[in-house]
Amino acid sequence: MIRISIFFLLLLFLLNFNNSISQENTVLRFAILGEKLFTLTDSNSIKFASSDRIRITNLGSNINSGNIDYAPSITRDGKILYFVSNRKGSTLTNKDEKSSHDIWAVSINPFQPLNKCKPFKLETNSNVAPITRLNTPLNEGVVCVSSDNKNLFFTGCGRETCFGDCDIFVSTLQPDNTWGNVLNLGPVVNTEFWESQPCITPDGKRLYFVTNRPEDGKSRRSNTIDDISHYGWNKYSPTSQAFENTAVHYSREDFNIDIWFSDFNFTTNTWSAPKKLSSLNTTDREFSPFITHDAKVIFYASDRQKDSYGGFDFYASRIINDSTFSTPVSVGQPINTQGNDIFLSIPKSNNVLYFSSRRTDVPGAQGDFDLFAAYAAKSIISNSNLTEKAIGVRDRTGKEIVSYMFKDKKKIELKLVLENPSVVTINVQDINGNELKSIASQKEMPAGESLFTIDCNFTINVGFISFTIDNDSFYQIVSLTN
């Protein structure tokens, strides 16, 4: 019997076919178009997808561990997801040889379900001094990724080069795909207090971050020219975008944490004196700013008491101009919960939102904080959604091996070429391999070219991780109606 599995991803049809092996292992991935999670209105407000269409999924045991996994940061193209973890394989601390918090990443491969994607720890070239490496026996927080994926802003804590408890640093991707010498951003951005969770606008002109520094924004120490030269901060021109990391364990009584910003002058290669983002900060704590890739919306987390579901919740505000922001609105349920929902990231496609949370209402919890994805689902394989169009499917060599033909909006015909007579079974599965539906041929199908017909008298609500494909791509499918 031939068994073909249909996985639901986004924007992709692929049949993984190998003539040298048994067709028992043939895998078909079936893709859909997802809704955007939010749209912008003419009145400078934000309209989120209706809550009944939002689906939350745990990224699973292959990406999440039994330890702390948090602060996701997705690249603009949606292909690499950075995050922080103290999982097995993280750098051991010098003190007690426990795993420190390190920066990890995973490639979001459209040809694989997430349970086949393997996370990896970011590495620094072994030739650089240990003190300037990216991941160390101390704790590293997360990552802002530049639009060209070549620069990372991140938080480093307890380093000899820190001005305070935690500072914001930058590292550059090297030709060997390791990360180059780490530079402290210097005493204008960093102080003897706590700076963390950097987020730089797509044009690299403004750095958002969080800090517990005093209200006047002034450091209590005096830095000399030698200090500045030592840290090399004024030699770096940022071109980044994104956000996030650390300090999910501080209590409200420890200190107030607010979002601040500093503007970068590309002529002088200097940062301006940081200012508080007063229109968004409250008397409570604001964390994890994230700027969308069009620079029109800022997301962040807050444990503010007003309109809260409990703990830290996500909020969003329209960026009208450099000094004007709309009144922040809650992202709402089901993304926000009564627990701590903190650190989020959205690719340019705006159809998936990665975030970290301690929530337990979604199957698959692995440990403390886990990584999740939120997406807006569509109904597919239903009478109302099918259109009369054929869709070709090719293997990785470019050879067409299957074509889809939608017949009178009620059936799908799969054209298969079988090596031997066999009963064919179609398994409809979610991304984690859970079976949603099984459809078997009524009788043995002959060798050679055969048509397998699926009667589309059922509806499956799905949607999943975004993978951007150009509109004119071979794998682009027709739009499906709501």
Key structural traits:
482 residues; mainly beta; Neuraminidase; 2 domains; five-stranded antiparallel beta sheet; 1 helix; 36 strands; disordered C terminus
Care to describe what's here?
Helix content is 1%, strand content 39%. It has one helix spanning 225-231, and strands at residues 2-10, 14-16, 27-32, 38-40, 46-48, 54-58, 69-74, 80-85, 102-107, 120-121, 140-146, 151-157, 166-172, 183-184, 195-200, 206-211, 240-242, 258-265, 270-271, 275-276, 286-291, 297-302, 313-321, 324-325, 329-330, 341-345, 353-357, 370-376, 378-380, 390-394, 400-407, 411-418, 424-429, 435-440, 448-455, 460-462. It is built from one helix and 36 strands. Strand 4 (38-40) and strand 5 (46-48) form a beta hairpin. It folds into two domains: 2-34 and 380-462, no CATH class; 49-376, 6 Propeller (Neuraminidase). The strands form nine sheets. A five-stranded mixed beta sheet has the order 2-3-1-33-34, with no helix packed on it. With 482 residues, the protein is mostly beta strands.
Q: How would you concisely characterize the structure shown here?
A:
The chain has 482 residues and is mostly beta strands.
Q: How many discrete domains?
A: 2
Low-confidence stretches: 1-33, 220-254, 379-409, 429-433, 458-482
Structural class based on helices, strands and sheet pairing: mainly beta
Share of helix among residues?
under 10%
What's the CATH superfamily of the largest domain, by name?
A: TolB, C-terminal domain
Instruction: Summarize the biggest pleated sheet.
Output: 5 strands, mixed
> In angstroms, what is the radius of gyration?
24 Å
Mean pLDDT: 71
Shape: globular
CATH topology of the largest domain: Neuraminidase
- The total of beta strands comes to 36
What is the count of DSSP helices, taking H or I runs of 4+ residues?
1
Which CATH architecture of the largest domain is right? 6 Propeller
Termini Cα gap: 36 Å
Strand arrangement within the widest β-sheet reads 2-3-1-33-34
